[in-house]
Amino acid sequence: MNAALRVRGIVKWFDPTKGYGFILSDAGGPDILLHINVLRNFGQSSIADGTIVELAIQNTERGVQATEILEILPPLRDETPVLSDFAELDMSELHAKPLRAARVKWFDKGKGFGFANVFGCPEDIFLHVEVLRQSGLSDLQPGEALAIRVINGKRGRMAVEVMPWEAAND
User: Fold this and answer.
1) CA 127, CA 144: separation in Å to the nearest integer?
2) If residue 94 lies in a helix (H) or strand (E), which one and from where to where?
3) Which of 9, 83, 146, 169 is the most exposed place for a label (fewest CB within 10 A)?
4) pLDDT tens per residue, the chain (170 residues)?
């Protein structure tokens, strides 16, 4: 086996049910296998198609495989708000809100939403699937730890950004 190399790429597709997906390297070459255990070691259970990742890879007898996720960057997008609830808000003001450590209470990808709880706060925080996608996620599992930015939306407390929980400690 060769030593691990650091590369940047984009998620071609990832299926958490199958437990794997593939990444296209910016440098070209064969697709890179991303196993769910490598993603879980980074603290996430899903990743959205089109998400930019920095990872360590290794050539194996079975092809090129990710060995470690080093960074996940949200998919490139314009500054158009993802939900009508955010349309009248200043996006720079939203990004200035503090990241709060939270846990997923439940999330239903089919319905497109779920709820989380910020540590130390009893109220539920609404999580919309479009907010997940803009943050590079595609699904969440109950109990999963996150870092979220929260606003008082038209329908109550809601997340405007979702990140790996480690970001709440930065």
Assistant:
1) 13
2) helix 91-96
3) 169
4) 455 799 999 999 998 889 999 999 999 999 999 999 999 888 888 888 888 999 999 999 989 999 999 988 866 555 555 555 655 666 677 777 888 999 999 999 888 899 999 988 889 999 988 888 887 788 888 988 888 988 887 778 999 888 877 666 65
For 124, the token pair is 């539920």
Residue type, 73: L
Q: Which of 149, 147, 140 is nearest to 89 (CA)?
A: 149
Rounded to 10 degrees, the C-alpha dihedral 144/138/35/101 comes to -30
With CA atoms as reference, report the closest residue to 138 among 55, 36, 15.
15
Q: Which of 43, 69, 35, 33 is nearest to 54 (CA)?
A: 69
| Residues with Cβ within 8 Å of residue 90, at least 6 apart in sequence | none
Which residues face 113 on adjacent strands?
108, 128
